[in-house]
Records
---
Amino acid sequence: MSQKELYNVAILGATGAVGQKIMRLLEEKEFPVKQLKLLSSKRSAGKQMIFNGENVTVEEATPDSFKDIDIALFSAGGSISKKLAPEAVKHGAVVIDNTSAFRMDENVPLVVPEVNKEDLKEHQGIIANPNCSTIQMVAALKPIQKAYGIERIIVSTYQAVSGAGAQANKELEKQSKDFFEKGTMEAEILPVKGDKKHYPIAFNALPQIDVFQENGYTFEEIKMINETKKILHQTDLSVAATCVRLPFFTSHAESVYIELAKDGVHVADLWNELRNAEGVLLEDDPATQTYPTPLSAAEREEVFVGRVRKDLDNDRGFHLWVVSDNLMKGAALNTVQIAETLIKNNWLK
Amino acid sequence: MSQKELYNVAILGATGAVGQKIMRLLEEKEFPVKQLKLLSSKRSAGKQMIFNGENVTVEEATPDSFKDIDIALFSAGGSISKKLAPEAVKHGAVVIDNTSAFRMDENVPLVVPEVNKEDLKEHQGIIANPNCSTIQMVAALKPIQKAYGIERIIVSTYQAVSGAGAQANKELEKQSKDFFEKGTMEAEILPVKGDKKHYPIAFNALPQIDVFQENGYTFEEIKMINETKKILHQTDLSVAATCVRLPFFTSHAESVYIELAKDGVHVADLWNELRNAEGVLLEDDPATQTYPTPLSAAEREEVFVGRVRKDLDNDRGFHLWVVSDNLMKGAALNTVQIAETLIKNNWLK
């Protein structure tokens, strides 16, 4: 396959927030699409969407939907991925899956192209897109790991509600208005749709993203810990995470502490690595109050890094503030970039 | 002086958010007030406030305002404290100062009564109330330090806008409404009133609280680092802080990582210490999604702790989520508790 070929592409979960972003990115990036198939649950089937100026009818996803599909971009939830990804592979499609279903499967590459695109070579039909909060952190840390080694990561996250889906966005909007108009707020979705209890997110902070595991960590925290080690190819890396949902719509921010494997590194050295890193934009100048924020990073493609500081007690310790649009680099964009990388390198098979 | 005596009390900054809370707490706690003097800038002088059912006229603060005052509670900004606290002391008053003006002065006790009330014995007329984000952290960590020793703290904060004053609250409210009604937001106050640039706080996160120092840390971060060491009486304690302003009105939350001085400690051991700690309430049960949030802690007196977890890589490492009302324990309540402790122990002098 050469770069000039065109491909039959399917988007599963086409009507969701990430699915729609994927479609827009395929247009914007002039992805070599021969035919685009939009797939969804039975409920959303029949909807009309416009791709490159033409109407496309959303179809209900079935195992046979993937006949003649070259690239299938999955973003419809873990259980659907588990059921349909193997079927798509049987039909010869390469699946890029946006759920956590296959991420820790040792036969499935977990890829952020700027960080570990070589892992794509080993794919057996399914490739996993990492968790949103993981993607932006490893994108920022890879150049530092490469230059100086990293022995330890402690991260506290500041995550947008859109990571919990479009319903969570609506809940934040409704609660924000009700807070002023009614003085009360109803919570039905967050912190986790389907979990036992719900708390207001407007004018609040919820230290729970995804469900709790037996060890007291949330699944979001466990995902960040395990995925980071896998993507950075470093099983002995210490990673700790505390994940918090906050009342903003777009972009995750992260307060990241790292310990390098080398002494004597300066902030200017890290700045240098970050300035030259693919997909990373350094926005760090205390004198002019320059740092990234969730609002400034929204709708942007890059991972933004600011507030780089040396720890005052530990010569190998550094603090960073990492912000990126959770639906773009954190989901849709990274998915499309994986597909582009497969094509560019003839790794689609 | 015995506990039955009554005292002439002055509140400087009486019309501000913290000043008003202090007055309410003096009422609620039946503080032994003989006469209450309310002091402010010239601008607010003349206002009427009600204390214990009686009208009190706010007076402009001058050096002579402190004649015959026993206890002066200062909450009107650092420069005013620097000017008027020594004058109040000259008149024989004991000043409890809510600003950063004297906190790191070695002759000034910096006190959270549950943590280091003995330091009050050494006062020379001025006692400093710590920074809001510091108070709640040391209140939660003191029982752990006492039982197991703490060698290191890394904290990322989630701080309410009310820490920046009543104007910041109004800014968050206006921006939140404008976001939906106009689609634009104007920023004039936050992150720091009087600093060069302003950014919207509604539906955003600002990694700047107080002004930047030359080393790239903000003054809020430096305050947390230095004050924590002073209050916990441990100059060799490693403390790192990243302070972030978020779009909620009340309560600061903190993601706190600590390293103990002992091996083999379990989560249950920390729970045990926290359950028995004065002023602390443990709210920690993942099975029932029980953890504190800014909204649940608002208007409450305690420091709430949840999400206590052992680090997955470091036997001495633990993570905690600490939440408290920044205007209550973080400011007004701690101020009043210092005054109560001085009286109870005959340390007023």
---
Amino acid sequence: MTVESRSDANGPSGVHDPRRLAWAYLSKVVQGPCPALSRLVEEVGPQEAARAVRERDLSEVLGERTVARAHVDTAAEDLELVAGMGGRLVTPDDDEWPQWRLLGFGNLSRSRDEGPPLALWVLGSRPVAELTDRAISIVGTRAASGYGEHVTAEIAGDLAVDGWTIVSGAAFGVDGAAHRAALGVGGLTVAVLACGVDRAYPAGHARLLRQIAQNGAVVSEYAPGTTPAKHRFLARNRLVASLSDGVVVVEAGWRSGARNTVSWARKLGRPVMAVPGPVTSASSTGCNRMIREGEARLVANAGDVVEEAGPIGLRDGPEVVRDLDALSGDALLVYEALPAAGPRGVRELSELSGVAVEHVRAVLPLLEMEGFVGCDDTGWSRQR
Amino acid sequence: MTVESRSDANGPSGVHDPRRLAWAYLSKVVQGPCPALSRLVEEVGPQEAARAVRERDLSEVLGERTVARAHVDTAAEDLELVAGMGGRLVTPDDDEWPQWRLLGFGNLSRSRDEGPPLALWVLGSRPVAELTDRAISIVGTRAASGYGEHVTAEIAGDLAVDGWTIVSGAAFGVDGAAHRAALGVGGLTVAVLACGVDRAYPAGHARLLRQIAQNGAVVSEYAPGTTPAKHRFLARNRLVASLSDGVVVVEAGWRSGARNTVSWARKLGRPVMAVPGPVTSASSTGCNRMIREGEARLVANAGDVVEEAGPIGLRDGPEVVRDLDALSGDALLVYEALPAAGPRGVRELSELSGVAVEHVRAVLPLLEMEGFVGCDDTGWSRQR
């Protein structure tokens, strides 16, 4: 294997860019999160990774994970199909890759489903990183009550007016009400799907999905043609959680999928909020329970949500305090590996800190975001 | 002043027992909590305290507090009136005095309104200590919604069936629904009034109050004839909180009196619980807010309430663990003043421990309840 230059990413970004074709091929092959493949791509680049997959030149784990579809290469057709719908494939090569939204995955176990997305298929014209810069996820039961629909509309509408992007899963009930409320006030909204972006799921939301693409984005880590499936909904929920500053559950029954999204939010360090409801309403059982157990903070309106999600939303504001004591783990090791003055490259920092390259890559944008480090053509350096 | 023998309490307990007449006189004079008077009575007994009040032989604080009504002595008439209604005056002399329910006051500041009650006027045949041994207070807005009335009835009814006494303030709305639900299932209930027990307040609850007296107790620290007043409602709320194992707020608006009861419960170390409601309902604003702010734990049913209040309810059960490390402050000093074997009297313990007599009296029942000490005719001693 040889290491590809990352500067390939600055080449042509059209449908037939070989690097992008490689990303598209890999996305189709793994169908969902695959931390091992993400690491391989980090190490050797997407083209070399694609070659290794095609030629079965892989570790056992990665071999098993890719064997079923290694022979399927519809990359060019997939890219063309999505481009025809006004969409594109967004990868870590792109400026709009929501890098810092995916940092939390570095803390998760390395199990099959807990990794960051390899790449994102996107319908919509706005950059994903920009769309998700200040975002709140609002989720809940498909069987929303009138109360649930009403409160969802109030909270989502008020947040969208206030400039927050509303992220949800495009399902019936609370999800749909959240997207619609954002659209209704001319706000931004992102739908994350558990199938290819060429599929309208649920079919009854086909028109809604078109509107979302026009006023925000429809996003999926699954290649075009992928059908929805149980495990994909669960994986999708982790993206709903990760692409926002916090998750609000408006209504959820005892065994609602929303609790899975909440579980991801907790793993990823996102604030979890829930709207209470009558203790006599089955649709509020899950929310009331999560509040009771301390899994979610009670919120009654958009103001409460902003109060909870605010500190991250305000991260670029004047109130950010640089506190070295707040650093730990890899972030602290990487920071300390930087000299007092002068830049260092990612691989150099990996060697100096003893932190794996992919982790160094993950923590640097976080450190930058918090004002500890800066980056220019020469590399990364400490900020005063 | 001379120290009266406490054995007076073993004398006649009828209307014309001079010691009881003194308690009744003092209760009428101070109209509500008066820590300074409680301390004086602890020191010199009620008769000597009554003499001192009548003859203005008092400290400045106590002089001011009692001057307005020192000349009013309706003790005999008050005792006769209440006896005629099937009631009585319960004092610290009596076995039914809910001593341990009032211990929490020892931790409060010594301000005018924060003391224990001097004595309690009671209608109803059951001993107060027994009635309040396993008790839950349920309070809330007078303007309860249908939802609030329904949930109150469910929770209070289920708790009462389970053997818990329902304590409340006999007001319209949540209070009334709580009392009624307990009566409806043949359970026990206690109404604490902000006026004399001879007054039916609110008048619309006259029949309800009679039923409560027949199936539990109507209780007040105010002598007969005392009319309800703002400050008496606030003082009454502290008794509602103290006479139970925990306070449940079912519905409360933003500025509900229930929040005052909650504030007392927190000061007195009682668990505070609140039932959530629709965020669109003004009657649930206070409850939702208290849950959000961490002032109250969300409860949805009687099971949740018992889970929260249970550890105190189970205090006599087999699960009580004696842990010396749990003792602190006066309790620890008093315990350590006891010899390994053999009894000591209260004054002796006060001298040995350096803890004031009234505090020694307050902590001993607590220590007994927790199994650290025992008491017989010869005095208090350590338990193995």
